[in-house]
Amino acid sequence: FPIDLDITTLNTITRDFMSDRYGGSAIACRPTISKEKLRRHGYNDFMYLNMRYHPHAPQVPGAPGLYFRPGKGRPRDWTENRVYRAFTRLSSGIWLKMGLYVLGFSEPLSIEEWRRNDMKTMRDVWSHKISKTVWGRGTRCSIKLRSQLGREPTQEEYEEALYSDNKFLDVNPQEVSNAFLLGEEVFSVWTMRCVGYDTEFQKTIAQQFAEWNPPPRPPKKTKNTTRVKKEEDDESKHGNAVTRERSSRVKQKTNNLKKRQ
Q1: Residue 10: its pLDDT value, please?
Q2: Above pLDDT 90, what percent of the chain?
Q3: Sign of dihedral through CA atoms 120, 123, 125, 128?
Q4: Model-level pTM greater than 0.85?
Q5: In terms of Cα–Cα distance, which of 3, 75, 87, 5 is closest to 43?
Q6: Which of 29, 74, 172, 208 shows the smallest number of beta carbons within 10 Å?
């Protein structure tokens, strides 16, 4: 998409600024904007792409890109009547608005693509996060069951294990990476196509950021060693959605069986 790259277009901002002025988490890929903030500015279409998780995100305003999510996506995910105001993290704490984007469902990453050298950082980051975070529990559950059973678990077996108290934290990053390398787990892919830019919005945030004074940070809480440090581009909502989707399929199947009896 052709965009006039003037000096204002290339002005960067920080996530803390966007969170303070426009709302939402400063780490989520698709932050939820409060009703109060939404009434104030009217924007609820922000998407923030960290290149450690999305190495083929747009790096120049208007350029195409790719968006990744672990698990089997659905064609309607992220695509139904949505235009996203996309920002890419160029370096630590530095974000640049790329434009207004629509997403198109594509083929999942192949085993060969997952193995490529330019995907190493993505492999390492996702494998580590899936092995440690709450939202990675569903994937860890599948990996653990395959290891124990020596085969693909049934939906009933998966459901029973998922509703247990087991967090499956003994599944390590290498086991996660291997599951994707073997094609047992998949990464879904969406293409990103720029359809506009909204120059006035970019001018507004550039001016606001230049005049912005960061609010004082709250005092640090006592460190909890059982928690995993959160990073920019938190994926928790997606992981929970994958687990809910798989669980809902099992529940539907169970309900259908009950009706037949």
Answers
A1: 83
A2: 68
A3: negative
A4: no
A5: 87
A6: 74
